[in-house]
Specification:
two-stranded antiparallel sheet, HIT family, subunit A, 99 residues, alpha+beta
């Protein structure tokens, strides 16, 4: 399935609570002010319904907010979170989702 309108009623019923739970977990773990939720299903190898739930941090500039959040995908490696930090965030978010 490549479009939201193709989701079954049962899938749709679980989507809202799932997105909210993940947003709460991200807020609790990384301290974001809010989350952005986006769905794209057009890139090669990703032609299925999936969502990006992206933390929007308080220190984002106006140029980094909204759809410009994707500019973070192109920052130099030296400006990216180190792998050990990402490796701590992922299980912490998972643990929050279990609560």
């Amino acid at each position: 399935m490549t479009a939201i309108h193709e989701l079954t009623p049962i899938e749709v019923e679980s989507l809202g609570p799932m997105i909210r739970s993940l947003s709460v977990a991200l807020r609790d773990v990384v301290g974001c002010q809010k989350t952005y939720v986006m769905q794209f299903a057009e890139a090669a190898g990703h032609s299925h319904v999936h969502f990006h739930v992206v933390p929007r941090m308080a220190d984002f500039t106006d140029e980094q907010k909204g759809p410009n959040v994707f500019t973070f995908l192109r920052v130099p490696e030296s400006e990216q979170l180190p792998p050990d930090v990402m490796d701590r965030i992922a299980p912490a978010v998972r643990a929050e989702l279990g609560n």
